[in-house]
What we know:
By secondary structure, the chain is of the alpha/beta class. It folds into 2 domains: 16-47 and 150-465, Metal-dependent hydrolases (TIM Barrel), CATH 3.20.20; 48-141, uronate isomerase, domain 2, chain A, CATH 1.10.2020. Helices cover 49% and strands 8% of the residues. It is built from 19 helices and 10 strands. The chain has a 5-stranded parallel β-sheet, with helices on one face. Strands 1-2-3 form a 3-stranded parallel β-sheet. A two-stranded antiparallel sheet has the order 7-8. Helix 11 (216-232) runs parallel beside helix 13 (270-290). The mean pLDDT is 97.
Amino acid sequence: MKKNIFLGEHFLLGSDEAVELYEVYAAPQPIVDYHNHLSPRDVAENRTFANITEAWLEGDHYKWRAMRQHGVAEEYCTGNASPEEKFIAWATTVPHTLLNPLYHWTHLELRRYFGIHTLLSPDTARDIYQETSAALRQADHRAQALLIRMNVQMIGTTDDPTDDLIAHRQAAEKKSSIAMLPTFRPDKAYAVFDPPAYQAYLRKLAAAAGVTITHFDDLIHALKKRIEFFDTHGCRASDHGLRYLHFDETTLRDAPGIFDAVIQGRIPTVAEADQLTAAVLYNVCRLYHAHDWTQQFHLGAIRNTNSRAFKMIGADAGFDSIGAYSQASGLAAFLDQLDASDQLAQTILYNLNPADNEVFATMVGNFCDGSRPGKIQWGSAWWFNDQLDGMTRQLRTLSQMGLLSHFVGMVTDSRSFLSFSRHEYFRRLLCNWVADEMNAGKLPDDTALVGEMIQRICYSNAKNYFRL
């Protein structure tokens, strides 16, 4: 093979076998992006983006974080600078992201969505801003067209239990080629450290469910009503963002009293909050099982670490990092409590701390019961791990401690309609790593056999897992 060039035809593909696996078995597969944070309204209304900043920098805390590290003022990240000024500020940062995945993602997105092969820099920023913004105002670059361009078959959005799901209903009525399914995300139902905010949320939840919430059982009943509502709108999954999972013999006994104290205004201790969270989750997870949903748990982030920034900007703004929490015993106890009554739904576990890779890779095997392939999954390398080394480590560990052939593959976990080239990034990396194993004699020299596994990981495993 010739020497690879930056983002060339054989980008990340270091052998003829890797090229064949990618071109024949990976690249043609549709995308099932079962976990992301896209705006359902933008999809349903087929949003036209006025400029590249709206499509690229709006809500992208990955980019904001890099910009701050480069010394860019907050005005150009989340502040009141003009869209063009914000884009130019990002362009000044990009040359300094060399060897960070942002450099690859930035230029993959410019190429795949706009056909621009020019490197983004301060010198090229204004021209690229004008060209991409003009393209985004055209019909073939509206929100749905951007998804169709990347062969997206399904997106799983992330939605609060109080959401009316009007956008999902509108999208379904239009019978688009892209299925947009809601995902039930009840994190606010156990966010108890700010009692006034929690009480306000409970009022909103009660109104959405058409009930009154004064006791713990009322909360579970309200969530049950919303789960039923989500189910009628095609929901197949839930998602939960937690530091860790917890369960012990006092959880179900103590939770109602803790709930009563919180709604009366008392701030709970960390241990009490853990008990209440676990009790809520235990009850809703049994409901997920009854509806044949998949439950997802994203574990291990330490969030909103910069209190000054949190007060100024709010959550999800790029001030979170990897947390060092003990995961194994609480996770095992929680899953076992559900499995003991045969009410453990399909489950995907994501860890943010790579030190927990082996814990999660082995944990999933404890609760597979032979009822279906890959019932309990270790999810794709998440957040700070969705880069070349992190994804490779996840694939290698999963292959050695589980069954890689049943892996449900990559998700964007993104708020951007321009992020779907990350699936290409993953697929190229996957094919190259597997081809290296073939060339080392660790796999048979049989591209049809190995290629079938590639195709399953890239598409059909997720398609089957989510009953598409």
